[in-house]
Structure formats: structure tokens, C-alpha cells
């Protein structure tokens, strides 16, 4: 069988891309999504504090005789700590941290006026409790914000609708 080796793709250097395409990004309507605050990431090197008087790690001459894995382990115990601090991490998060809305298991049946009988519709519209109920025709006219409001009052541009008010 003949197998081909996958091609290695270099990741994009984000900082150099921003510098090369600065004018394009500044004119982009969604530039807030592309740019990140320059003061967001800070790099701090903390010196390692040793808690013992005598180091329990061998000197560098003895460590050079060891294999590479042991040397890297020793280096991790003796090197300074590197801390990356994200200033705006409190304002970020993942999709999983969003509040969860519980879905209702019980869905109501949708009933349309076209599907119901006229008698059933009248029963639903009739008052079920004691209270003031008004019913009758309502005249719907043009909007009052119009400059020609008084002209419309004299004309017959009103619509007549039968309504129930509870």
C-alpha cells in the first residue's frame, strides 16, 4: 500500500496578520470581533522560592550525565514559574456556562379560529366570571399622528369592528 504523508499546515500568526491588514480591519464593520484588547494578556515571571537550606537536586555537572527526560524533569523543578494573566477573563466564558432554560414538557394544543365552531368560540368569549363586560362595535380610524387628522374625521375612512372588552 502507498500512504501519503499529510501536509503540515502552519498556524496563522495572529499579530502579524493584524499588522499586515490593519486598514482592512479598521474599516470592517465587525472589527470588535476581530480585535482583542492590547492590555488583556500580561506575562509575569515569578522566581522560584526554595524551601530547603540545601538543594536536593544534583548540580548541573551531575545532571548532564543523565538522560534527556531526567534533565527536563530537573529543569522543571529548578526553573522560574511563568504566569500568564488574562485581565478580562471575568467577562468571558464558554457556551456551557450560560444559564440553562428548562424546556416545557407539556405543550398546549394550538387551536385556530378557523378550526373551531362558531358556538364554541362564543362560549369561550362569553364572560366566565362576574365583572364588567362591554361588547359592541368599535370604530377604528387612522393614526392620530397624521397632519390631516381633522380631514380624516370628516371622511369615511373608519373601520367598524365588533369587540368584547373585559
TrEMBL record:
One of its GO terms (molecular function) is guanyl-nucleotide exchange factor activity. Residues 7-115 form the Dedicator of cytokinesis C/D N-terminal domain. It comes from Graphocephala atropunctata. It comes from the Eukaryota. GO terms for biological process: small GTPase-mediated signal transduction. InterPro entries: DOCK, DOCK_C/D_N. This is Dedicator of cytokinesis C/D N-terminal domain-containing protein.
